[in-house]
Write a structure and sequence with these properties.
heterodimer, A: alpha+beta, Hypothetical Protein Pfu-838710-001, B: 529 residues, two-stranded antiparallel ribbon, 23 helices, 2 strands
Chain lengths: 226, 529
């Protein structure tokens, strides 16, 4: 199994939810803010948990397969614990350790043979923007789908119809995570009219005025000459 | 009211700063800025006076004259309204309001305008401005303005054309207006709680997999075809379960014999040695010396008999020295084959049954005074153990000896050993088993580990205990003895070796081994007698 490791060992993460009817407006807003073309997102995510023979503390790895490409690419991701303490409470994003690497397609077999077991799987369908602003920031907006049968991605059904999840992640290192967190926070302010973003385990709810903001972004009015 | 008036009075004071910037006198006269300023100051004084009155009422604790206060308020209100109208005219000249802001979305305008540009965005902005003015910076300012106006007109025309096209398309395809509802959205507590619950559910699904896990029974079975990205990663075996590809066990070029045997490594069970009588009350393991065993225990399956007959007829047509070589190879192949078939059967689960039935079996063993195999057959079986051991070893997985089975075996291992030992001592054939006493100290668990090729730290056992272990726990041993007996030339050779000394001399025993296995067996199986 070939592996190409990444050096970043931390990431800053915020999450939020948005109603599907406002996703188009969010895409327009993101297109303007990021200044890069959007990428289609269709990811089959397999979450594997270790068996007891691999240690007392169970470990969890996620195998992500980008199935939107003609030749699907596989990524293995291990998400560690979040930063805690007074410093962590003061910043509005979650900072956690993370190791991510591109792998060859037989990675799944490798993990199975090591004794890992499939815990759950998801299919995420949506779009993403990747751009650089102080740090490499990725914004993904996706519908989360679960499988009624094992590996049956064609029969996937939304976990929550009518709602999509917005993830903003930025790669960081132990040296620069505070700057990256600040960059993510300030970027999130631009999305405030449509989506409230918060740490992954702190619910933020939907924006009550999102409909009006979406209407404003989508409206037909042309600019007048000055 | 105090806060409200304070806020609104700040608004009319907006226009005076332009006066300080020495605006064009013509513009000042046209917009009547001086008049607006005077009215704003007088309004400010009126409001201040009212506030002072209230302050005095508060200090002296006297009740206010509400009639006067209401009269003053209506006057201030009217004046404020007039000033706001005037300021609107002024602001049209100096303030650009977003066209899309209306009563519906005005409330969120502060949110939309609240964010300051990031430093990167500011630098980006500046670079774009420089880029825009790059071609015209050398020209005089009026020319610059004209050029920029011309460019803006072109862009505006292009935008108008695009809007027309969009509007026509919308009409043609019947798309409605994209404006949202006219009512300003409000959210009651019930709705907020529901959304909170939904958000928790969605976040939990993404972060923890909550609500997306399949029940364990469905996790194994794959009823649909695998998606393309998994099809070349995972394969499916007969049982319909996800499986990883098994490493192939080709020992040599005689692998086709293995394919023809009618059994597979996994999935289906091999031809059962217990005959046609399937009695669920019996232990799945039948020994040749067990009272329950039928006369068919040692008989090979019809497929094997047919195969052996074909091979014998082919042998007759070859020269004598080739016949001998082929006979040796075929016997070795069959020994491997039969040991593999033994693997195909569910041996591990059947060993657990010994826990319940061990006493009965070992009592039956006590009463018998003769082992059911002759010395030549025992010798053949020992040789079979040597041949097949190495090949079985890597086709069993470590996980199959589970802790539950170990527990079962430990419970009766002591009794089993002593029963076997005493019965063997009482039988006339006990001289065949010189190393029998070494079994006393060994539990069955290490023996199982060695038999199934699971690595352990236990020393290698003597031949006889190994042979007895096979006889007791490996039904394939029965098949091996019968198959080798059917090979006539080979049997004669074996009997000659038996006369020469059997177990005593290992060198003669190794004549029948394949040359490439010779060193290995010398190292592993030398007998120090």
């Amino acid at each position: 199994m070939s592996i190409s490791p990444k050096t970043n060992s931390m990431e800053c993460v915020v999450q939020g939810i948005i109603e599907t009817q406002h996703v188009e407006a969010l895409e327009i807003l993101l297109q303007g803010l990021c200044g890069v073309p959007r990428e289609r997102l269709r990811v089959h995510e397999l979450c594997l948990k270790s068996a007891p023979n691999l240690g007392v503390v169970s470990s969890e790895v996620r195998l992500l397969c980008d199935i939107d490409q003609p030749d699907p690419t596989w990524t293995v991701k291990h998400v560690g614990g979040a930063m805690r303490g007074a410093g962590a409470d003061q910043i509005s994003v979650m900072v956690r350790t993370m190791i991510e690497s591109k792998v060859s397609k037989n990675a799944l077999r490798l993990f199975y043979s090591l004794g890992y077991k499939l815990d759950h799987e998801l299919l995420k369908v949506g779009f993403a923007f990747h751009f650089k602003r102080t740090a490499h920031i990725s914004v993904s907006v996706s519908s989360v789908n679960k499988m009624p049968k094992i590996h049956a991605i064609d029969e996937a059904v939304p976990v929550l119809p009518g709602m999509q999840i917005v993830d903003v992640t930025a790669a960081a290192t132990p040296e620069n995570y505070s700057e990256v967190a600040a960059a993510v926070s300030s970027f999130c302010e631009f999305l405030a009219p449509l989506v409230h973003l918060s740490k992954p385990f702190d619910p933020a709810g939907v924006v009550p005025t999102a409909a009006a903001a979406a209407a404003s972004l989508m409206s037909d009015g042309g600019g007048t000459t000055l | 009211m105090e806060g409200g008036v304070g806020l609104t009075t700040a608004q009319p004071q907006g226009p005076p700063p332009p006066v300080a910037e020495k605006l064009n006198q013509q513009v000042v006269n046209q917009l009547n800025l001086e008049g607006v300023k005077t009215r704003a100051i007088s309004l400010f004084k009126a409001v201040t006076r009212i506030l002072e009155d209230f302050d005095a009422y508060g200090r002296t604790n006297t009740s206010p004259k509400w009639q006067d206060i209401l009269g003053q308020y209506s006057m201030v209100n009217l004046e404020l309204f007039n000033i706001v109208e005037e300021v609107k005219k002024v602001s049209n000249a100096f303030v650009v309001l977003p066209k899309n802001v209306n009563a519906e979305n005005a409330a969120i305008l502060p949110v939309m305008l609240s964010s300051k540009l990031l430093p990167e965005m500011e630098t980006d902005d500046n670079s774009k401005r420089e880029q825009l003015l790059q071609g015209v910076q050398s020209l005089p300012i009026p020319m610059q303005i004209e050029r920029l106006k011309a460019r803006m007109d072109m862009i505006a025309a292009a935008c108008e054309n695009a809007e027309k096209v969009l509007a026509d398309t919308r009409k043609a395809y019947g798309f409605g207006a994209r404006q949202g509802p006219s009512m300003f959205p409000t959210m009651d507590k019930g709705q907020a709680a529901k959304i909170r619950e939904q958000e928790d559910m969605l976040r939990a699904a993404v972060n923890d997999g909550t609500g997306t896990r399949l029940p364990p029974d469905q996790r194994q079975l794959l009823t649909t075809a695998l998606p393309p990205h998994l099809a070349d990663v995972l394969i499916i075996n007969d049982a319909g379960k996800n499986a990883l590809p098994m490493p192939s066990n080709n020992i040599n070029s005689q692998g086709n014999l293995l394919q023809n045997s009618g059994t597979q490594f996994m999935g289906r069970s091999a031809a059962s040695p217990s005959g046609g009588n399937f009695d669920n009350t019996r232990s799945p393991l039948q020994y040749s010396n067990s009272p329950q065993s039928t006369s068919m225990v040692n008989a090979p399956s019809p497929q094997q008999q047919q195969l052996q007959q074909q091979q014998r007829s082919k042998l007759m047509q070859l020269p004598q020295h080739q016949q001998q070589l082929l006979a040796q190879q075929q016997q070795q192949q069959q020994l491997r084959q039969s040991s593999m078939q033994g693997l195909g059967q569910n041996q591990l689960s059947s060993i657990q049954d010994l826990h319940g039935q061990g006493q009965q079996k070992f009592q039956a063993l006590h009463g018998q005074h003769q082992m059911s195999y002759s010395q030549p057959m025992a010798h053949q079986q020992f040789q079979a153990r040597q041949l097949s051991g190495g090949h079985i070893q890597h086709s069993m997985s470590q996980g199959q000896l589970n802790p539950a089975m170990n527990r079962h075996l430990n419970q009766f291992s002591g009794g089993a050993n002593s029963a076997l030992f005493t019965s063997a001592q009482g039988s006339p054939s006990s001289q065949m088993i010189p190393n029998m006493s070494s079994m006393q100290s060994q539990t069955l668990v290490p023996r199982m580990q060695q038999q199934f090729g699971v690595s352990g730290t236990n020393p290698q056992r003597g031949h006889s205990s190994q042979m007895l272990g096979d006889q007791m726990f490996n039904s394939s041993g029965m098949m091996q003895t019968q198959q080798t007996q059917l090979q006539q030339p080979q049997q004669q050779q074996q009997q000659q070796q038996q006369q020469q000394g059997g177990y005593g001399n290992m060198q003669t025993n190794q004549q029948t081994l394949q040359p490439n296995m010779l060193q290995n067996t010398q190292q592993r199986h030398q007998n120090p007698q």
